[in-house]
């Protein structure tokens, strides 16, 4: 469809008459429809809250970092202590089981019999990787299907992988089973699971070393096709540490102090902002605020610069126009505790 023939306001009037499921599918019509549905419809603009997950406790709490007086509220107790939370999607929590903490509904996730072999330490770091690091969860914005993704990985060598494993849940199948999605990376790859597994806009992403350079590998949740990006990850400072994240609804990369975003064509990384404090990963954007971590147990919010089309963050502007959060910036306390922070809609 040629975008010139229909103004955005007319498209908005059309899609508002559609039911939510059809509205999501209409994003496939063309780029104009995609942008209108994504940025101008209420269900796509819901503001996520921060879910506070404390594995050593049974409490699950949420807090709205954008409220005038942020205060954590206990949502529901988790089934048992010591659960490793894989991720969240549209209010669904994925751990050993899928759980809706609002209704209390749960659904067991069948285990992969070979998952234990992927648990170990990253070489030369002493960083112990739990089994949960090899999993991710996402909901495709068009089909509405929830999919749990398992990424085979080797930490200490390059390996040839034939497939990633996908489990569709919440659909018509009463007893869902894992299936394989073929992978073809000539020469193999070494997974970098310390960078995390992130689902953004209908695809699950992780990092891998391919041919001597770090790249993003992505699984399209609708077509279940796997492909690496052609552009390498930006070089990280601080001993090569980096984490994948969601930034402004796009795939991001935190290298400290730079935060990068990948363009829509997946061909170029650009600097979104510079943050000299640790941030809550993989999700640190909450409305007008960025959530930063001080020490190991305190989380503070910093407001975005208002009126700036780039949506970058306060308070100090550099010569290149990129705003950064300095290590001296105090911010406003949101919560205290040894939490893992996830987005919760």
UniProtKB/TrEMBL annotation:
SUPFAM superfamilies, per the entry: F-box domain
InterPro entries reported for this sequence: F-box-assoc_dom_typ3, F-box-assoc_interact_dom, F-box-like_dom_sf, F-box_dom, SCF_F-box_component
Residue ranges of every copy of the F-box domain listed in the record: 6-46
Coiled coil: none
Annotated PANTHER family: BNACNNG10540D PROTEIN, F-BOX PROTEIN CPR30-LIKE
NCBIfam families noted in UniProt: F_box_assoc_1 (TIGR01640)
Protein name, entry field: F-box domain-containing protein
């Amino acid at each position: 469809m040629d975008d010139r023939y229909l103004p955005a306001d007319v498209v908005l009037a059309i899609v508002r008459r559609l039911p939510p499921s059809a509205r999501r599918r209409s994003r496939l019509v063309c780029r104009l429809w995609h942008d209108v549905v994504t940025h101008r419809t209420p269900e796509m603009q819901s503001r996520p809250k921060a879910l506070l997950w404390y594995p050593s406790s049974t409490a699950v709490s949420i807090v709205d970092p954008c409220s005038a007086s942020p205060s954590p509220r206990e949502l529901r107790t988790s089934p048992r202590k010591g659960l490793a939370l894989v991720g969240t999607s549209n209010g669904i929590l994925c751990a050993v089981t899928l759980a809706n903490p609002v209704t209390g509904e749960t659904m067991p996730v069948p285990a992969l019999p070979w998952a234990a072999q992927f648990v170990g330490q990253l070489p030369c770091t002493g960083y112990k990787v739990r089994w949960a690091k090899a999993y991710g969860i996402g909901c495709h914005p068009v089909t509405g299907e929830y999919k749990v993704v398992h990424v085979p990985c080797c930490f200490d060598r390059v390996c040839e992988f034939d497939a990633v494993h996908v489990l569709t849940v919440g659909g018509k199948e009463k007893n869902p089973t894992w299936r394989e999605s073929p992978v073809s990376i000539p020469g193999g790859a070494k997974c970098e699971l310390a960078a995390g597994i992130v689902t953004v806009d209908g695809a699950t992403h992780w990092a891998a070393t391919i041919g001597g350079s770090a790249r993003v590998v992505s699984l399209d949740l609708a077509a279940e096709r796997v492909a690496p990006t052609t552009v390498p990850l930006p070089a990280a400072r601080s001993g090569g540490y980096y984490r994948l994240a969601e930034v402004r609804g796009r795939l991001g990369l935190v290298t400290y102090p730079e935060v990068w975003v990948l363009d829509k064509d997946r061909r170029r990384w650009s600097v979104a902002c510079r943050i000299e404090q640790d941030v809550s990963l993989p999700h640190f954007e909450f409305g007008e605020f960025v959530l930063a971590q001080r020490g190991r147990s305190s989380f503070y919010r910093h407001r975005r610069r208002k009126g700036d089309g780039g949506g970058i963050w306060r308070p100090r502007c550099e010569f290149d126009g990129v705003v950064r959060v300095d290590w001296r910036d105090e911010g406003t306390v949101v919560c205290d505790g040894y939490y893992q922070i996830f987005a919760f809609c």
